[in-house]
Design a protein that fits this description.
This protein has 435 residues and is of the alpha/beta class. It folds into two domains: 142 residues, Aspartate Aminotransferase, domain 1 (Alpha-Beta Complex), CATH 3.90.1150; 271 residues, Type I PLP-dependent aspartate aminotransferase-like (Major domain) (Aspartate Aminotransferase, domain 2, 3-Layer(aba) Sandwich). Helix content is 38%, strand content 16%. The chain is built from 15 helices and 15 strands. A seven-stranded mixed sheet has the order 4-10-9-8-7-5-6, sandwiched between helices. A four-stranded mixed sheet has the order 1-2-3-13. A four-stranded antiparallel sheet has the order 11-12-15-14. The radius of gyration is 21 Å and the shape is globular. The relative contact order is 0.16. Bound molecules: 4'-deoxy-4'-aminopyridoxal-5'-phosphate. 4'-deoxy-4'-aminopyridoxal-5'-phosphate binds next to helix 4. The site of 4'-deoxy-4'-aminopyridoxal-5'-phosphate has 15 residues, from helix 4. Its cofactor is pyridoxal 5'-phosphate. This is Aspartate aminotransferase family protein.
Length: 435
């Protein structure tokens, strides 16, 4: 009997006692390859000496001082690091404790921005059906993942949903990538027109969709076209890079590859790389100035936001990634991972699609490659894959289909950025065996 309220109380979990590079060791001495970085978190692997030293040094100075009284050198330095590397004029970093908090703050900042500039009626959010933005009620209300939302209906203020950019299923064979992207941008345009642009606050999307769809990258100029539609109607663009950001795709910010700059961006996971709970919201000059010149107070805050040890740890993580040029490794190992997965699994009758960017890779499973019919959701294949792989010492992040029965099971791979050529070979070998 455990007194920890576990998420899945029927399931006994092993205790993790040691982390070393890309491996985790449990209490019984069994070793696991962390091929999912937990949930795309541990990008620097486990027990990195420079990160541990930075956290200890900060703890020796001071751990916590409430942000209504103090800033800290660690928070200022981390903000400088992020904003000097972020695209466009995302020059203002607001620190929180995780991804859901970063998304929640982004939604509230968008709403308050419109209040400050005298357009309080802009309150509707548009998001995509295939999306996950977090588990707090606000973030849940905009996410499109039906089974996560279902127990909590009616939600606070549900978003309007438009189609995701899901080329494997939705791009027509007679359509080029740009025509497909145009069609999706037109759908957003029509949706905004129907709602009345004067009521719409923001469009929210994961730059590369993670947990709900398994590393779905946009095609063509999808994000540039979406940005144009938003601008045409005065609607803000919020990018959720909680999973896809901080180097996961081979770029510090995934949207750099798409040549688009959002008004607000949410980041977390790889920011602290699992060493400390931390998330952040990056805001553009225009948004920041509206608060500064308006009420002068952003009406959102959390007790642990801007925690000095979390900021010190995150800065050490990001400096290590930069010093060791790990983004180059992410691009190379990601290429290798996709190539080897294609070689090993293209002939498998149930592997429909292998996709992604950098070390953010998805494998979609289907009943039949031609019809792309999803696996029967009641089989819970994703859960069996997770369990089997784990018993073989491989951590994966598989997800089940949504309850519409169309979008099926998939497996997300997000190994640490430090993984080597032979680590990738071992991951592919164990994954192939599991499938
Ligand atoms: N947004 C995205 C895209 C995510 O993948 C996640 C976590 N899976 C979240 C938000 C929520 O982050 P957290 O679990 O840190 O609250």
């Amino acid at each position: 009997m455990t007194h920890v309220f576990h998420r899945n109380p029927k399931h006994m979990l092993p205790y993790a006692v040691k982390g070393d590079g890309i491996r985790i060791v449990d209490k019984e001495g069994k070793s696991y390859i962390d091929a999912s970085g937990g949930a795309a978190v541990s990008c620097l692997g486990h027990s990195h000496p420079a990160v541990i030293a930075a956290i200890k040094q900060q703890l020796d100075q001071i751990a916590y001082a409430h942000t209504s009284f103090f800033s800290s050198q660690a928070a200022e330095d981390l903000a400088d690091f992020l904003t000097s590397r972020s695209p466009g004029d995302l020059n203002h970093a607001y620190f929180l404790s995780g991804g859901s908090e970063a998304v929640e703050a982004s939604l509230k900042l968008a709403r308050q921005y419109f209040v400050e500039i005298g357009q309080p009626e802009r309150h509707i959010f548009i998001a995509r059906r295939q999306s996950y933005h977090g588990n707090t009620l606000g973030a849940l209300a905009i996410g499109g993942n039906e089974w996560r939302r279902k127990p909590f209906l009616p939600l606070l203020a549900p978003a309007q949903h438009v189609s995701p950019c899901y080329p494997y299923r939705d791009q027509r064979s007679d359509e080029s990538a740009e025509q497909y992207a145009d069609r999706l941008a037109q759908e957003l345009d029509d949706t905004i027109q129907n709602l009345g642009p004067q009521h719409v606050a923001a469009f929210v999307g994961e730059t590369v969709v993670g947990a709900t769809a398994g590393a779905l990258a946009p095609v063509g100029d999808y994000w540039k076209k979406i940005r144009q539609v938003c601008d045409k109607h005065g609607v803000l663009l919020i990018l959720d890079e909680v999973m896809s950001g901080m180097g996961r795709t081979g770029y510090l910010f995934a949207c750099e590859e798409d040549g688009v700059v959002p008004d607000i961006m949410a980041i977390a996971k790889g920011l602290g790389a699992g060493y400390q709970p931390i998330g952040a919201m990056l805001a553009s000059d225009r948004i920041y100035q509206a608060i500064l010149n308006g009420s002068g107070f952003f009406q959102h805050g959390h007790t642990y936001m801007g925690h000095a040890t979390a900021c010190a740890g995150a800065l050490a993580v990001q400096q290590a990634i930069e010093q060791d040029q790990l983004l180059e490794n992410v691009r190379q190992r990601g290429e290798q991972l996709r190539q080897e997965l294609h070689q090993a699994l293209d002939s498998h009758p149930n592997v429909g699609d292998i996709r992604g960017r950098g070390l953010f890779v998805g494998v979609e499973l289907v009943q039949d490659k031609t019809s792309k019919q999803a696996l029967d959701p009641s089989l819970k294949t994703h859960a069996k894959i997770k369990q089997h792989a784990f018993s073989q010492g491989l951590m994966l992040y598989p997800m089940g289909g949504t309850i519409d029965g169309v979008h099926g099971d998939h497996i997300l791979l997000a190994p640490p950025f430090i993984c080597t050529e032979s680590d990738i070979q071992e991951i592919v070998k164990r994954l192939t065996h599991t499938i």
